[in-house]
Design a protein that fits this description.
CATH architecture: Sandwich
Number of helices: 1
Radius of gyration: 20 Å
Strand content: 35-45%
Helix content: under 10%
Number of strands: 12
CATH superfamily: Galactose-binding domain-like
Low-confidence stretches: 1-20
Number of domains: 1
Shape: elongated
Structural class: mainly beta
Distance between the termini: 37 Å
Order of helices and strands: HEEEEEEEEEEEE
Largest sheet: 7 strands, antiparallel
CATH topology: Jelly Rolls
Length: about 200
Amino acid sequence: MRRCLSLLTLVMAMPGMSHAQGTPMPIPIGNPGFEADVLDCIPSEFCYNAAVPGWLPNWFNGANSGTIKPGAAEYPGGVPGGVNVAFLGGPSAVGGIYQTVSATLQANTIYTLHMSIGHRADESFTGYVASLLAGGVEVASDDSLSPAPGTFSEETITYKTGATPILLGQLLSISVRSIGTGQVDVDNVSLTALSQ
């Protein structure tokens, strides 16, 4: 028994065998859950504002975006966090949002961008592109989710920089845009960095 405990202690003390490899550090995002706009109305498709505090209209495709406090007709199970989400696009236009954060691209770092992507039960969903950028250049993106009507799906985009990234030191940005006519909703955006 004593020999087994000694072996276990030795294995746990070996480099690379513990969880001390690092903890992802959160990168601050302005209004990540879209709750900064307090909408004083009953949750519904009509409870919205054509602005998203902390985010700019996405320069890729115009400014048809805003903050909405959806109700049960839009999301019977509710939204992932708080009461608001960002909406992108609509029945006759596309839209998007964009934010540059205070962090810069670093070498030997894994960046993880996470968000909830929603499909309103009462609107068509024609797709989206979520991107991580450095110096305005897209370094990672995804467009693969297709949530069922009235639900959200969890998007995770990971980008590893390597030892000598070309865009070293460039400011990071987050972009989410709709594709085609239809609406995409976004909630709970987060970005972390893990040094390797």
